[in-house]
Protein 1
Amino acid sequence: MERFRANLMLCAGTGCVASGATKVRAALEKELKKRGLKEEITVVLTGCNGYCAQGPVMSVLPDEIFYQSLTVEEVPKLVEEHFLKGRPYEKLMFKEPEKKLAIPLMKDIPFFKHQVLRVLRNKGLIDPEKIEEYIARDGYQAAAKALTQMTSEEVIKVIKDSGLRGRGGAGFPTGLKWEFASKVQSKVKYMLCNGDEGDPGAFMDRSVMEADPHAVIEGMIIGAKAIEAHNGYIYVRAEYPLAVKRLQMAIEQCYDAGLLGKNILDSGFDFDLEIYQGAGAFVCGEETALMRSIEGKRGMPRPRPPFPAHKGLWDKPSVLNNVETLAQIPLIILNGSGWYRSLGTEKSSGTKVFALTGAVNNIGLIEVPMGTPLRTIIYDIGGGIKKGRKFKAVQMGGPSGGCIPESLLDLPVTYEDIVKTGAIMGSGGMVVMDDNNCMVSIAKFFLEFTADESCGKCVPCRVGTRILLDMLADITEGRGKEDDIETLQDLSRDIITSSLCGLGQTAPNPILTTIRYFMDEYESHISQKWCKAGVCRDLCTFFIDEELCKGCGACLRACPSKAIIGEKKKPHKIIQEVCVYCRTCYETCKFNSIKILPAGAHEPKHMLVETKT
Amino acid sequence: MIELTINDKKITVEKGTTILQAALKNGIKIPNLCYDKRLSPYGACRLCVVEVEGQTRLFASCSSLAENGMVVKTDTPKLRKIRQTVLELMLVHHPLDCPVCDKAGECNLQDLTYEYGKTETRFIRHRKESPPDVRGPLVELSSNRCILCGKCVRICDEHQGRGALGLIGRGFPTVVQPAFGEILECDYCGQCIDICPTGALLGKPSKFKARAWFLEEKDTICPFCGCGCTLTLGIREGEILRSRGKEDNGISEGNLCGRGRFGFDYIYSENRLKTPLIRKNGELVPASWDEALVYISDNLRYIMTAHGSSSISAIGSHRCTNEDNYMLQKFMRDVIGSDNIDSSAVFGYALVEKAWEMAFGENRHKIKLKSPFGKEVIFILESDLSITHPVFALNILRAKKEGSHLIVADSRETKLTRHGSQWLRIKPGTGAALLNGIMKIIIDKGLFDRQMVSSRYFRNLEAVLKDYTPQAVCRITGLNEEELITAAEAYVRAKSRMLSLSISVSENTKGLDTILAATNLVNLLNDSPDTLQIPAEYCNTQGAYQMGVRPISHQLSAISYQPEGKDTLEMLYNEDSAIHALYIMGDDPVITFPDSTKIINRLRALDFLVVQDIALTETAKLAHVVLPASSWAEKDGTFTNAEGITQKVCKVVAPTGQSMPDWQIIRNLALRMGKDIGVRNLENIQKEINSSFSYQLSAISYQPCFNPVNYTSAEEPDKEYPLTMVIRDVLQHSGSMSTRSKALDLVVSEALLEINEEDAKRQGILDNSHVKVSSRHGTVYLKARISDEVHEGNVFVSTHFPHARINNLLYPPSNGLSALCTVKVEAVKHP
Ligand SMILES: Cc1cc2nc3c(=O)[nH]c(=O)nc-3n(C[C@H](O)[C@H](O)[C@H](O)COP(=O)(O)O)c2cc1C
Ligand code: SF4
Ligand code: SF4
Ligand code: SF4
Ligand code: FES
């Protein structure tokens, strides 16, 4: 990297590519060439930078100036200002929200300020397709140390002492898992990586595999050494072609560099690593199903015990770890368990990566110390709720997790605290919801997912999730019955206690937590046939409150169905027969004069009183 | 040992036992629908959940191991609640059509619902669309009744090694369907029917015949192969309607093959004999018992006086009971005064006995159905045991699953080659050469037991083996040297071994030389004779042999294999044997022995032929007198299986027409001939058998002895007859008896010539077209089936089907060996 005066670290993560990074790159290169800067300044494509919300983004090294929302049109100006005139280009910098002052340095931007990057340490800083760049940032030193200076027991001890817990969802102590497998005698053992990442909307693992594939491989080499495995697989879903490509390149580079294969780094240790592309069923992320899947069989979970540490892949002792878990390993080996524990809490040490999405201003990939309060994540890093709306809940743990309400926002993010809410830490999905969300519909969304992804093996999950889903559909479509809430809770609890694998054991969580914190929403759906968020079409009517309406006509223009009539400066009116319940007017009106009333409501005046309270 | 407490009861079990097994063993019931002890734990039905003290989560007892100090509760309000919910969920799409379901009354789902279920369900509307039912010839699947316990899929795959059923789809819409294609084409073992806890899988032949509670169930022994499985027959109003295996019942422990399950209806064939028949003016016409017996006794007496006792001989039956066979030989020896008695064993079991005596100095070879378990290496030589001895082969598959290294030498693909660790694809009939080659490698590498050098004829063995270098053996067998050496080393280096093959009249790739080569290998490694497992072929092959149905001296105490009387080969193939009368009980040599033409000529030349059988067989059609015998289900008695275990066969239905048990016919005949052989009833016979055979088990032991054999090449294919014809049984049949079963006929009803695609192409033969098959000896017409399981240059046929007359193609046997022959196959042009 040193050859150049400046490196333009352009994010080529999926988010930025979607917002135009490829075109920006072409424009940058063209411009640099035109200006004769090609020899001095280079464009490096990096993995996801995390700040997807402002993409395409780029940071300039070594000065660490951060540019966002790049466009092809702005590129000539940027090159001219920054690289010819030496004046960083303010227009494309992050603006502090209040006074709109530009913040040039990445580390000063609030989105980055509260984060601590360990897993994501290399994101945006290296070209993931070049092993030299990984090595330049201390890469493979940990592997070398583990292979040549440490015994298996020592490796396991450091990891155990670090308190590292599996990031794949269950939070099982990684060191302990390794210890179990290391104690089983067997000539053949397997070290496996779980890159299936099936949670809808999650992209933590994909980002790590794309941005820093060598970190995962290094973690696997160390794990293999710890349990004395000589073969490994990285299980990646086939829907992640870029991750597959990068990992494949990285593996080949490792073989060429003697970091994989026979006698790694002359240590006498052998380790072969392959990629297995999964067909993409959610349940294949479950460890026993994942192993069946690698064996070429139908990916269905099997009862445990026997645990994989005893009988895993092809009935041989195996360890399966999540991508993020593995990416932490090299750091712990290099810096020690004490360093690792310096962040986080007693039972939840270190940092955790989250995919922050939903109704926050800054969506993206973030990494924070364990124990960071939810409020900090949502308001400081996430920049608060979009359009100044009201926060309603944050969903954690995806389809296995639950919704945490406003009253619990000061909760520190740790395994123990999250579980108490009825949600789970999960793999790191964090979806923020505002008052536009209907919680019954949210529960239904997740149940649709789990019912669809249930492998169909065990009865409670196969039939039970389908019935839960059908009942939620009934409630959202106006067929809810008095005792439905009780039945939902009762059946949910039975499914949780009796299902075979983690999928069924957690699938009802979204229902239980929404009932727990948003019971009134269920009740109004069932007894008043009223979805107050206006999401369930069968359970709402949109009205314009004549007293509040200023007659600005914004809703009239926005309505795609031309259901609104009215003259300028006079109260407008919605023609119910034409309304398609799209919520556009509700979101457009600046004066809060659109009201959502129960299905079939005819007397707005009477109902309005109630909505105001 | 593990100590735990279940429902306050202290229990001790072996390590590795699951909680469910521990409970069941101690008479504690835990409901379950997806557990079967033959299968690996599945954990899908969730009914077997239990509470463990100190643990908040519930344990699925079928898949949780019992641990020391565990305190388990199997029936608490919490558990009842869960089970209720689970059943309620199962019933969401189970149609509750019990009134029209055969399973009702013995349905696990029904029973559990009765025990746990609530009378109402909270979830009525939610059903899935089930795919159309699968209707096969013998097995029917009604998917809407299926609760997806997966047992059928697993028994078929894990246990039966077939994998004909699969779970299709995922989640709620999952269904069980044939794994390949729309119709179920499989082994038709019906194991899936027995294991299905609901009425989703049912046997077609018995469908809608009787409600379970009207069936009276009786156990008896299967009349087909030498395994000796226990059949539980379901009888209603004097008719057998079905047969099934019951868990843990009998030596088969509930396993059955398709023959045992569906083949019993051969006793209802139209072909059954109902009265005696006497040939008058060239026609067989009905006669009374009296008439028939008088006629026989007169003729036999006449021949005895005219040509002497030794001109009369008899053939006994591997299908008849010990008592029947005992009576036949007693009749021959005590009434006629002749040792001319033998059976089809001459083509199989007798050869094994002979080899045993020559090699180990022991008589009476028995196998153990469980011997495959725990063997490091299992070596199967040119034998399709999954067809000849299905339940024995299940144990081989299970042993393989549990870690045995399975080497299979065979010229065609079979279930065993598919599951094997190594498949030696040898040319047909070259097993002896292969064994010689293996011994040569062992000797050259010095891997044998030095002690054996001093055994008798070791030097001769060494000398003979000189010519069996790997190169030479590979030339003969068609293997490459590496696979030969790998197999030899795997075999010899194993700490425990089993070598198994089958031998019978319906196969033509092995003979005495093959068995001797196998005994040499056993001796060379100083293994116990038990290493070699050669199962007796039919339900009572071993019993008949033991009863003295063989041409030994009638002083039964002499046990050496010294034929005194004439054996089957003499009787049927030697024109100069001076036999004038033949009494055949329960066998059909015309169809099942080699060279039908020769046999027919021999039988026609006899002065007097009596055939006593259950049906009018091709052989019976040539007889002077035909006597109607009762079938296996119509009489009491015993069979001795390949393990040497004598098991009771019961009369479960009334005899057909005027038929009588064979032993009774012979008793009556003896009386008619003026000789009371002192037998009144079955007990008399059994007592007599017990006292006269008590010496049997004391073996004389001499030194193990080598009997070097050379591989003799079979007829070599040439331009004119380019294909080698191999004779093998098909799975659904056993001898020719099973072809009279309507049920089995639905699956395979005619002899098929299996031919490789390339060979077929060369001759312009299409799948399922008629072909003309000729050897130097004869010609037959068959239907061709193109099969990639068969290697180029070979064709496979079976001898079960009377009309096919396959045996016309074969040469008369020499030394009990029905040799391989070459054939040409031509397409039949339809005008
Ligand atoms: C239905 C289901 C889906 C899962 N999917 C994933 C996944 O996509 N990625 C993952 O790392 N772990 C997943 N897990 C968790 C894995 O079973 C396993 O616990 C994890 O990969 C172990 O790695 P860790 O100890 O590093 O967390 C899933 C579990 C269940 C029950
Ligand atoms: S009858 Fe036997 S082979 Fe056929 S599907 Fe059932 S278990 Fe499988
Ligand atoms: S058909 Fe019967 S055995 Fe097979 S899965 Fe369904 S219920 Fe179980
Ligand atoms: S034929 Fe053999 S394996 Fe099949 S059921 Fe009868 S005895 Fe058992
Ligand atoms: S018997 Fe244990 S889950 Fe079915």
Note: Residues 6-108 of chain A form a domain with the Glutaredoxin fold (CATH 3.40.30.10).
Protein 2
Amino acid sequence: MANLIEIKGVTHAYRTKSGPLPVLDNLNIAVPEGEFAAVVGPSGCGKSTLTRLVAGLMKPDQGEVWLHGERVTSPRKTVGMAFQNPVLLEWRTILENVILPLEIVAPRMPQAEREARALHLLEMVGLKGFDSKRPSELSGGMRQRASLCRAIVHKPDVLIMDEPFGALDNFTREDLWQTMRDLRAAEPFTCVLITHDLRESVFLGDQVFVLSGRPARTQMVLNVDLPADRTLDILYQPKAQDMLHTLRDQIRIAQGRDGEMH
Amino acid sequence: METLQKIVVPILAVLLFLWAWEALVWVNDWPNYKMASPSDLPPAFWKFRWLFLEMGWQTLWRTVVGLGLAVLFGTLVGMIMGFSRIARDGLYPLLVGFNAIPKATLVPVISLIFIGQHDFNTVLMAFLISFFPIAVSVGIGLSTLEPEYRDILRSLGASRLTIFRKIALPKTLPEFFGALKVSVTLAFIGTNLVEIVAPHGRGLGALFKSGETNGDYPLMFAVLIALAALGILLYYAVLVLERIFAGWAERPQS
Ligand SMILES: Nc1ncnc2c1ncn2[C@@H]1O[C@H](COP(=O)(O)OP(=O)(O)OP(=O)(O)O)[C@@H](O)[C@H]1O
Ligand SMILES: [Mg+2]
């Protein structure tokens, strides 16, 4: 299968007051169509930078980002994004928030069709009946669910998520992992998920990319050969436990290279 | 019960205030030229009722036009400052410096530049005095917009204009209305300043001055009351607009 996302030799440095800050160093990541890539790495190593490059919000100093066989130089309409902060617009209802990308990507789509699509997604993530509520009336987990709906409402072929469940409590987070799994089964997309939760990376990922400390390179790629219809129990089985151990060790190595130890 | 309280308490407070005022004048036996009492006011209003309507209208429209210009210009300057760092660094000291000038000193300057253009001068002053808070609030609101808000639309290839229309503009509305509440009061002050100071002025300010020249003290106090009423009217008009356009920013009461 062809690689839908291809990051080839990407190097990037931020220009700061105290000189250039190298963040990514010859990074290589390839994600086949329909696969789920989890990216883990020490704090501040350049993971968010990576998402911005893939989304075309920034251009790398060196190297190339390819999506769907096209070189990314600017934002594309076929990308969906979700962040740690759900960034819902407070002046819109949940339904109007979910519809937002369609207003940009499909300006001629009839409103009824947009709403039907959004309502369908809201039902899938368990927000049925909350469509006319304001974001401030929802809990953190519910807001993040709405944010997920918004990220995929326009059927993007690439979904980029930057620690989307990072601010949630453990149980809510595990709930959302399952929601993610079901969403993926219902409407396939290729996904890059940044996370600092190793269990999350194993539960959701087909591949886990471990980045080294800043400047980040691909330190290790782990193939998660677990079945697609995983349940939470699988995390407690020896196979997953082994993977978690491997990842844990890799993170320790990654942190060792960098001054920022945690 | 609660709504009743909301209506009755303010009315009682106003009545109490009027009664205390009347009592103060009566106890001290002050003549009208020292202080008019509330009971002198209705006759003054009635006697000059047509003047009050006409002058009140003059003051009102000039304030509103001046404020409208301030909103347009202030928003524009705020947008420029919000989107461009260079513009912000360049414009900010100019704006602060201009804002620091006591506006009363501008009245003679303006009247000299635009001699006899009373309407224009008044509107100009209302505008000059009131655009600053709007420009600053819009500028700060736009420049402090979290990048993630921008990124949700930017990652879809939305134009800057679309991002402004769909995200930045609505998001700054609460700050904008906060500033507008200050500006409406300022614009009102600006209008009255010119009306009072300029020779051959019109509007409630001019009526106040004519009361002074003719020694009609109840008229002067009546104008003060009329000004207060007009000021309240303008302020509440802004509140209503805020409710309509930025009502979402009000957190549900817990
Ligand atoms: N716009 C910027 N200008 C300058 N430096 C930046 C900028 N954005 C990020 N950095 C720096 O680049 C490094 C990588 O940032 P990035 O946000 O990509 O890290 P991250 O891996 O996402 O961190 P975290 O796990 O804490 O989210 C950090 O040291 C950060 O200080
Ligand atoms: Mg980050």
Note: Chain B touches chain A through 22 residues (CB under 8 Å).
Protein 3
Amino acid sequence: MSLMEKQNFFDSKAVDGLDRVDGRLKVTGAARYSAEFPIPKLTYGVLVTSTVAGGKIQSIDAKKAEHAPGVLAVISHFNAPQIPGYSEGSNPAKGQTTKGQPLRVFSDDTIYFYGQPVALVVADTLERAQFAAGLVQAQYQKASFQTDFDTNVTAADFPSQAKNRNSNGDYLRGEADAYKNAPVKIEAEYVIPTEVHNPMELQSIIAVWDTADKVTVYDKTQSLKGAQGTIAQAFKIPVENVQVVATYVGGAFGNALRTWPHEIAAVMAAQKVGRPVKVVISREQMFTMVGYRPYTWQKVGLGATADGKLVGISHEAISQTSTYEEFTEGTVNVSKFLYACPNVNTRYKILPLNVSTPTWMRGPGEASGAFALDCAMDELAYQLNLDPIELRLRNHADTDPERNLPWSSKYLKECYQEAADRIGWFKRNPKPRSMKTEDGMLIGYGMGTGSFSAGRSAATASIQMSADGTYTIQCATTDIGPGTATAMVQIASDVLQVPVEKIKFQLGNSSFPKAPSQGGSSTVSTVGSAVTAVCISLKNKLGELAIGQGEAASVKPADLTFANGQISSKDQSIKIAYADVLKKHSLPNLEVTEESKSGEERRKYSFYSFSVHFVEVNVHPATGQVKVKRVVSCADAGKIINHKTAGSQVIGGAIGGIGMALMEEAVIDNRFGRYVNNNLADYHVPVHADIPAIDAVFIDKKDPYINPMGSKGVGEISLIGMAAAVANAVFHATGKRVRDLPITPDKLV
Amino acid sequence: MEKDQCSVPDENLNENSGSSRRDFLKKSTFLSAIALTPVSLVTAAEKEMDEKLAAVFEKVPLKLEINGVKHALSVEPRVTLLDLLREQLQLTGTKKGCDHGQCGACTVHVNGKRQNSCLTLAVMHDGKKVTTIEGLANGADLHPMQEAFIKHDGFQCGYCTPGQIMSAVACIREGHANSETEIREYMSGNICRCGAYPNIVNAITEVKNGGQKV
Ligand code: FES
Ligand code: FES
């Protein structure tokens, strides 16, 4: 490890801003996503879904479909092969749910929600499968169902796991509801509607049984090992008999962290028809089959002294979940640590409805929570007649108030300063509805803060060096878009001191060394550490070989320097290129595998990334149309490995936040329990015309404790706090405080 | 085999008469145990000859020039241009994001004009020239727009990228790339959920200002 300490990451700017190593494949259409593998004898599966939101399947008339051209099977619970993992009562397709079980596809006649898969039609061409799917007729015994959050909200309860604790999961620091007795206070309710990840790539899987107990899946997933384990468990086959391939993932934002019913259905169908089966779910099905950000109601109470010192924070949230499974997330967490405050209490409940199970969506619960908290902070600032930044500075948490630990690093103040300067914050007139453009548009400025845990878990990487001086690193991680391979190549290049062109980083295959899911902004931290470790290990090995048995044997490993692909010793008795070390020992290649994980530092420090978003909006005074004119997002994400790709991630997160603030809402018709806008024309996401230039800025200072690179995460903080910034800007422009997202024009006129 | 009957898509027969030739053959295989069906028909059904025959009659000839390569195809009329490219010709660079003309991931050029390939049937383009993302580069030399997308990091996951690039090239050719605002307007049919928009606009602006032939 002595070498590790000597590492000085990215002090040279040489490789920063490297173009994506897979860029060429992506711009030429050669990058292969999961539905795109040419597989002989491929068949196509199309899912038929329920047209009621509750009840029982009475019958499924599949005759017409079965006799339609090219149809190989119509699978429903009436004829589906048993999934051995289901009948055993184990929990395949497990997510991090506290109670209940994932939907067991085609296992019984119960309907839990509208759009639930009830049959899978398999045919020899896509068109034939689609046509036949339309011929399947299901009859239901309808039962009453509930999808309306407001009318059912009294049924909300603590998550089962929380109920096992005395506190019911409630958090209390100091005194409860202390805000109520504070000299200045605000209390407000906020609503986030159901939002759908809607990555551009539809969820897809090709399942191929290689032998009776060996299966390969080309699967859209953020978790190779997760999918591998789930499929193995469901079909009762050894884990190593399941191979999961996800070379490219067309976005996911959290919806590919779990293994969903359509994936199990495809594997089951391939087994049944004895041929490979491809299932690509439709855009409509993306709304009910692969999770979403849950509809969430929140109430925040803030109390402060007259000079703006927080006295109390109370934060309560209720989120929807399904009736068959409890989904929970960290919605109220942000209130526990973001600001210094002696009295904090939080409460989190869930409300089961006849909907599918939600899942983490970028920023996850923290993004919902930060929307409420940072809008409330803005409301409090206006109440106090204090600049919103000043209020935050007066309540800056110098240490983590929740865990009573020092931060590993925190440059939030620098973020405020940098971003405020760039957008011209202090030049604005803070009075609401006081600024106008020449053509009469209302101008508004707003800001919001984001923070998310900077994680690091265990990962393993292998490296193979060839005698020709090229290096191949493998790790079972994925790349849903951030540019994982690019960052890893840079890290390896920096540690090995060899040019990036010589290094290949391979991911997306479950047979590579173990890595966790790509989620929670932790891939660079976790996988980057494993890459560092394996490169150091390779250098050590090369060093040993270079020292060898001969004359140089007296040289100590610590006296070796590795630079420009060469090993040299202080006394100059050794001076040899890495590749020549292999040649000298007649080795065709050299291979090393290393695991790396976090350690003691996790108990000594609190690890978080921080961000600040500033937004300028124009609002049409008559129509209420909001246009985002400028965005400055500044992140304290530790050392930035690649400013270009990390910048893109920040820009992308900000755009996600704009969608959240102004457009996104999956609307259910409660009479039928059905989404009415389940397509990309009616579920609005930001398009080119909605998005201005976005200034992504990094503090770019190493975190001294988190990992050898000093890098924290970017993915979540780039979105967390953004919706609040937009909402606060709309308030500044119009004087109207809209507390239920999205802020559509009707709410402003 | 009467010609007019075979030219009617089988599914219509199923719908209208409740039983079709092929339906009969399928059932016949189950009856073969009691040998009421002529042997030849049973054999035909067992070898899936019925499917193969029908497949032939349900298809129509189609000539397309795709990325400079001439194809003489035989496709069902209901096959979209997108599914033809992706599922039958292994040209998977063109993406499916919605299948409803709402996202632009499937954008290709048909006779030089941009077209959502999910929103058009392949047979409607007989005799036309189609360019997909695979055909944009000149051999190993990338198209300037592809280069610019790499340089400006105009993508993250890369799934919307082929559509964005095909649209971007057409946007310049159409004369709709004269300002950033105009680019944003004329690129709004191409959704990027990763949010690469500002970088894409920078890439297009650079290519436009560079004056290279697109
Ligand atoms: S797939 Fe054609 S527009 Fe979306
Ligand atoms: S790059 Fe992922 S959708 Fe555009």
Note: Chain B touches chain A through 70 residues (CB under 8 Å).
